[in-house]
Specification:
Layout: H1 29-38, H2 43-46, H3 61-73, H4 79-88, H5 90-96, H6 103-112, H7 114-130, E1 138-147, E2 155-157, H8 158-190, H9 201-230, E3 261-263, E4 270-274, E5 277-289, E6 295-301, H10 310-321, E7 327-330, H11 337-345, E8 349-352, H12 368-378, H13 380-403, H14 414-440
Parallel strand pairs: 1-7, 7-8
Antiparallel strand pairs: 1-5, 2-3, 4-5, 5-6
Amino acid sequence: MSTSYRPYHPDQPFLLPADPREWLAEDHLAYFISDTVNALDLRVFYAPYEGDGRRKRPYEPAMMIKILLYAYSTGIFSSRQIAGKLQEDVAFRVLSAGNFPAHRTICEFRRRHLADFEKVFVQVLRIADEVGLVKLGIVAIDGSKIKADASKHKAMSYGRMCEAEKQLKHEIRLLTQRAQEEDAREDGLYGPDNAGVDVPAELRRRESRLATIKAAKERLEARQREEDRANGRSEDDDQKPSGSPGRPFKRKFGEPAEKAQDNFTDPESRIMKTPGGFDQCYNGQIAVDAEARLIVATGVTQCAADSGQLQPMLECVRRNLKRNPRHALVDAGYNSEANVRLLHRRGIDGYVAQGRGEGDPDRAPASKWLRGMARKLKTKRGAIMYRKRKHIAEPPFGWIKSVLGFRQFSVRGVAKVTGEWSLVCLAINLRRLNGLMAWET
């Protein structure tokens, strides 16, 4: 007896329109994202398109938001890849409802509304808070280096800039002199009334590179002037501040160290040490609620050190949720007397790792605040509380980097990077909320 197979007719068209709602499971992430976006206040996304109606009709902003959030939630960050998924992926087609924006349209929408996604992040977080998922009993804060959209090979040190500037000026003088001599020779051959030769392309290239290097030098010098002022120096001060030895400073006011670097592709990124070596990066910060494992605050800094980010992150938590956490857990990167005092002043029960021997109560150089924190961490309660930090703060970075595969920003400049970081953290929160809601039901 021959085998009977299920019907298979790939050339048979649909006799009736297909219902997209039947293409995915009811608890699919795409439906959760769609329902969540429908519940948000999106007026800030619609405002730029309001007009007299004579413009070319734009795509529905709610639809664009849904496909971007779903793309980031599933580890797709390239606008070209998103445009491709709209053609071939069922979930994307359900969310787009028959719309197929080009990759340029997707890229421009994302670029235009990066700052607005920070507001969406807060709205979603407050919805989770309203339904009782966010407790703010314990919050763990951590940072991780994320590669910038810039190569470290496109960076140059201040010392090398000075050398290159001198060399380029010398070469420009030689090329200019050679061009003038060639002009004079041709004037003698063809007469002064004939059109002169154009500026040599070689000269134009050197002048362009010289302008780029000068701009980079000015950025480094401006940055150094700000640091010098923050350290108590003035423009006419060539000695150490009063109360310090009278030796001259190693560098003049506003003069960067020779090894100080600036990147030509993304000047606002910084060289930072990563597990894979040194690279152009930004430092992405998150605060995570221990109960729901939701990211409750985000931030981006150009500084590789975390110590200066505790106050901004605590302020962000309060701004987002209108209250402080009861307990805060941070690693040794945030260890400083100022941070320990900040936690005490705000009434937050903080646990700050003291590093390798730093702040040990038996070490005299440590301040009383650090000695007190070291004693606190050595108690049974302190040890139990601090051990929770690792499994609260670090898993979201594991999801972002290893599950979603987000290891490099696709935009440049700290303002745009901050917006994309909010978009990434929002995507992680939506995945987490989808699981929590399914578990609740």
